[in-house]
Specification:
Layout (H helix, E strand, L loop, with lengths): L1 E2 L2 E6 L2 E6 L3 H12 L5 H4 L1 E4 L25 E5 L5 E5 L3 E6 L2 E6 L4 E2 L2 E2 L7 H15 L8 E3 L13 H4 L3 E5 L2 E2 L4 E6 L2 H10 L1 E2 L2 E2 L9 E7 L2 E3 L6 E3 L2 H8 L1 H24 L2 E13 L2 E5 L8 E5 L15 H9 L13 H19 L6
Antiparallel strand pairs: 1-2, 2-3, 4-5, 6-7, 7-8, 8-12, 9-10, 11-12, 13-20, 14-17, 14-20, 15-16, 18-19, 20-21, 20-22
Helix pairs in contact: 3-9, 6-7, 8-9
Bound molecules: adenosine-5'-triphosphate (ATP) and magnesium ion (MG).
The site of magnesium ion has 3 residues, from loops.
């Protein structure tokens, strides 16, 4: 189903608006498919030509080391012939592979609840590699959905797409997902801060008076959320509301898993110079019980703040999307669709922030 400038993907009962590359880019891409200019591998993806092949590095100033080359172009949307598309999320394309799912993290980026017109080259690889790092780090705390991310071990039907899939995909156990996002907050920020200002509590959990924006909380709190019907905004709910939706025993289990993961991961992040202010997990059930699914502790699902710049009493700069947000504010975008595209230097600096997050958290550089 298509509408002008947008493509639509289903996720369970939700329909998510996805921004595609601009019409001219797509028209050129389809023209090349039609005329056979694209190789079979190229045919499997839609691309984003936002960045010119020659970069103007003089427009880039960043405290992190610049890389020699950007992998071009960003992968905006996958289309694998003969595979069954299960769903498209804001960032991931999901395919049904036998009884399993193939999760492919594209380079789409969203801000203010909209997928933007430009992708960040390699972002999907950073998210995938970071999630793999955390799945391994957390495996003693909680089982997870990963079967393998080694493309060579993927089923034969996926081998033709090995080059596209390498580094940015995972074969996972298909889970029955809980209709609740398991959010944990160690600091007061975002919707938690708004809620606190209005009610003195977050998701019904009372907090001491006099806390400032970005203050550390006396202890981490579990503040579940659910999706609104438009599928774009998360809505905070109370624990009782969660119990009404998924049951008391499961809610308690999800809360204790979420807090245990946060405790372990935030202590580790702190050792690496990063504050894990809050994060969101998605859990599901398989025949083996409750597992951690989706992505884990990436900059897209979490607020990471550099410790050395932490100043409570106001908003902290977002680690990864600050350049994107600043740019969108500077052009006074009304935060309604269609979402704008990004200029080259914003793309480049954002890519560097994602890579920096990976490097800081894992201690290794990721080559894209
Ligand atoms: N093991 C799994 N089994 C079934 N569904 C899964 C599994 N892991 C992840 N998912 C689902 O895959 C989708 C991933 O999509 P994606 O992260 O792109 O977007 P989103 O979750 O819709 O949006 P956002 O993350 O911005 O809220 C989600 O709907 C998630 O619930
Ligand atoms: Mg998601």
């Amino acid at each position: 189903m298509k509408q002008a400038g947008r493509s639509w993907g289903t996720r369970g009962h939700r329909i998510l608006p996805l921004r595609s590359p601009d019409n001219a880019t797509l028209a050129l891409h389809f023209y090349r498919i039609k005329t056979g200019i694209l190789s079979p591998r190229e045919r499997s993806r839609r691309v984003d030509k936002a960045l010119p092949a020659t970069e103007n590095r003089s427009s880039v100033s960043s405290s992190v080391p610049t890389r020699k080359a950007l992998p071009l172009p960003a992968l905006i949307e996958t289309e694998f012939a003969d595979l069954v598309l299960h769903a498209r999320g804001k960032v991931r394309d999901l395919y049904a592979v036998g009884e399993h799912l193939l999760l492919v993290a594209t380079d789409r980026i969203s801000a203010f609840d909209h997928v933007l017109g430009t992708g960040i080259p390699g972002k999907g690889k950073v998210l995938t590699q970071l999630s793999l790092f955390w799945f391994d780090f957390l495996k003693d705390v909680v089982p997870n959905h990963l079967i393998t991310a080694d493309v060579k071990q993927y089923p034969a039907e996926l081998q033709p797409f090995a080059a596209e899939l390498g580094g940015r995909s995972m074969l996972v156990k298909r889970a029955q997902m809980f209709p609740v996002e398991c959010v944990v907050r160690g600091y007061l920020s975002g919707s938690g801060w708004k809620d606190y200002q209005a009610t003195g509590a977050v998701c019904g959990i009372p907090l001491p008076a006099g806390l400032r924006e970005s203050d550390r909380l006396p202890e981490p709190i579990f503040t579940p959320a659910t999706k609104s019907l438009d599928g774009e905004h998360d809505i905070n709910i109370s624990f009782d509301e969660m119990v009404a939706r998924v049951g008391a025993a499961k809610s308690e289990k999800l809360r204790s898993l979420t807090l245990a993961i946060y405790t372990k991961a935030s202590a580790y992040a702190e050792e690496r110079g990063l504050i894990l202010a809050d994060t969101k997990f998605e859990f599901g059930t398989t025949a083996e019980g409750i597992i951690l699914a989706d992505e884990v502790l990436t900059p897209d699902s979490s607020r990471f703040w550099p410790q050395d710049q932490y100043k409570p009493g106001g908003a902290q700069p977002s680690f990864d999307k600050q350049f994107v947000r600043d740019y969108l504010e500077s052009i006074r975008w009304n935060k309604q669709a269609p979402a704008p595209s990004l200029p080259e230097d914003v793309v480049k600096r954002t890519q560097e922030k994602y890579l920096e997050a990976y490097r800081l958290l894992t201690g290794k550089s990721l080559s894209l």
